Amino acid sequence: MQNFMKSFVADESGATAIEYGLIAALIAVGIIAAGGLLGNTLADQFNSIAGEVESAGSGNFSG
To answer: Is the pTM of this model over 0.90?
Structure first.
């Protein structure tokens, strides 16, 4: 029983798995945050382009 407890306390494989899980979670949060910022930036850019196209189309065009 004493040998089992010593090996149980010395075993760090569970702690390593938890650390890898935390690292993966942090990377996922970073990717999600970057994707959200990129999405907002792209939406703003497309809205700007749409406004330019709309204003160019409402000019003095007799067609």
So the answer is: no
